[in-house]
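Predict the structure of DUF1800 domain-containing protein.
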Amino acid sequence: MTLQEIVHIYNRVGFGISYTAASALQNKSRATIVSQVFDASRKVKPLTVDVSELTAQVRNAQRNDRKKLRSLIKDSVKKVHELNIAWIYRLGTTQEVLREKMTLFWANHFVCHDKNILHIQQYNNTLRKHALGNFKDFVVAISKEAAMIKYLNTKQNKKEKPNENFARELMELFTLGRDQYSEKDIKEAARAFTGWNHDFVGNFRLRRFQHDYGEKTFFGETGNFDGDDIIEIILKQKQCAQFICEKVYRYFVNDQLDPSRIREMTEVFYKDYDIENLMRFVLLSDWFYDQKNIGTKIKSPVEFLVGVHNVVPMQFEKERELVYLQKLLGQHLLFPPNVAGWKGGRNWINPNTMMLRLNLPSILLAKGAIALDEKGAFEDDFQRFNTKRNRQRKLKVLPDWEMFYSEQKNITTTQLQQVLLVSPLNKGTATYLDKLADQDLKEYCIQLMSLPEYQLC
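Done. Here is the predicted structure for DUF1800 domain-containing protein.
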């Protein structure tokens, strides 16, 4: 594979690659490199934070002690933010890059939010476990997650009064897409999921007296269906395979769909709904490496942050600042904007976020100042974060330049550019970089990551 192709695949299945690591792979075939990517992601390493103290407090709390319960909820939300930070650092240090990138992808597909750390942590690890597995097993597992049961009101779905929220989103957002089902299909599917609930720690429980055991007709099939049966019938529809392939293509290949490629992917996926087989097919295909697919996707805020970290490892002195930074950039992990998740693509960029992105490398790596917006959704956070109300504040970040130099031994500024910038340079940018070519590698690195072209992968 060429250097450009190696950088491309590691940008899409991970968060970039160093010149040293990329050049070491150049004498290997595409099949070998793709196999290495999958082999590195075989293990499933759960992501956890310490919840022992919180769990003990919950056991001792009286249910009618509302003040104590409010305090516990507040403590739980703090733990959710702790999980958020742990996830960001995991993304920047993991060896299982594809599994973690797939977990990130599925988190914006099976969208969910929960303030209960026990439940959201379990949900996050279910994403991780099934990220490269069988899609049917994945859908069933996610449908039975406590966080999802609460988020989409399955808890309120009872035989006497079915709640249709989960059934609708299962088809519209998770499996088939909009307008691929009837209102009757929603009503019948909702009946099949009645009684689905969970216990205190998050284990799935079927409340039998709340479940509708009557006959149901769904997508032309009739029987005493439960939720698992509904999912199986949905997956019989080829539209389900196509819908997932379209989302995979947009995320890993190009925002602009190519119908012929989607058809190829759908044929592969529909056979067995094996996610690994689908991803392997994509990464081995010649069209994945077409020039039209290289350097054309706008990095998500998380991809951008983790990408900078992968080049220059860094530690936030006050880790809470990493949470605020995610909010300012528009992607706060574990806190999606709505059930549809983040739209992605060009929606990542607006005048405010673009200016922050261009200045962020200097802010993080060269002690630059950050302007915090006091308005809108960030007002409360701003007040806590910036009590002195200074419009300019320096984030306390500790970049590890020693690690940077150790991983970039004997490379030139041109070689660094080859792995950091993959989109074509305009004439002005090329001239600008020529003038910087004699700079120290550290300064050149910061300048490269401050260019508009670095926003693309």
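The chain is about 55% helix and 5% strand.
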